[in-house]
Amino acid sequence: MTAVDLAAVIVTVVCLATVAVLTVAVISLVRTMRELRDVVDDLRDSALPMVDDLHATVTKADAELHRVDRVIGRAERIAATVDHASRLTHRAFAPPLIKGLSLVSGAGQAGRRLRDRRRHRRALDLASSPETPATVSVPASPPGGPDRRSQPGGSRPTPRRRR
Fold first, then answer.
1. Does the structure show a pLDDT above 70 at 162?
2. Residue 135, in any domain of the structure
3. Is 105 among the domain residues?
4. Exposure letters 45-70 (e unless 16+ CB within 10 A, then b)
5. Full domain range(s) for residue 60
6. DSSP code string of 95-159
7. Does residue 77 fall inside a structural domain?
8. Per the structure, how many domains does the chain have?
9. Is residue 147 in some structural domain?
10. What is the dihedral of CA 122, 126, 127, 128, to 10 degrees?
11. How far is the C-alpha of 52 from the C-alpha of 35, rounded, in Å?
12. Residues with Cβ < 8 Å from 154, sequence gap 6 or more?
C-alpha cells in the first residue's frame, strides 16, 4: 500500500463518517420539521378562529365608535343650540322683565305714599274737627314723608298678600 492508497482510504473513511453524521443530522432535522409542522397546524387551527372573532369584534367596536361619535356630535350641536337660544331668550326677556319689576316696585312705593298721605289727612281732619278737643296735636311729617310710627297702626308693617 502506497501513501496514495492510504490517503485514499483515510479520505474515504472520513467521507463515510461525515455522510453518517450528516445523515443523522438530516434525519433529526426532518423529525424536528415534522413536529414544527404539527405545532404550526395546531396553532393555525386554534388561532384562526380567534383572529376571525377578533376581527368581528374590532369591526363591531369600530361601528359603535362611529355611532357614539355621531351621538356626541349631535349632543354638542344641541348644547350649542340651547346655549344660543338661552342667550337670545335672556337678551329678549331680561330688559322688559327688569322694567316690569321696576314699574311694580315704583307702583308699590307710590301706593304706600298715597296710603300714608290719606292716613295723615285723616289724622289732620280728626284733629281739626269740632268734636275732638283742641289739645290733640298732630306731629309734623319729616321731609321724606309722614312718620309711620306717629300714625295709628304705623309701627306694624303692612301685611303683604302672597300669590
1. no
2. no
3. yes
4. eeeeeeeeeeeeeeeeeeeeeeeeee
5. 7-127
6. HHHHHHHHHHHHHHHHHHHHHHHHHHHHHHHHHHSTTS-TT---PPPPTTS--GGGSTTTTSPPP
7. yes
8. 1
9. no
10. 100
11. 26
12. 119, 147, 148
For residue 66, the one-letter residue type is H
In a 10 Å sphere around its CB, with 0-12 CB exposed, 13-18 middle and 19+ buried, how is residue 144 labelled? exposed
**Taking the complete model, does pTM exceed 0.70, yes or no?**
no
C-alpha cell at 110: 307710590
Which value, in Å, is the radius of gyration of the alpha carbons in the chain? 56
pLDDT digits (tens, 9 = 90+) for 52-100: 999 999 999 999 999 999 999 999 999 999 999 999 888 888 888 888 8
Residue pair 118/125 in contact by the 8 Å Cβ criterion? no
Identify the weakest region by mean pLDDT among 9-18, 81-90, 100-109, 114-123: 114-123
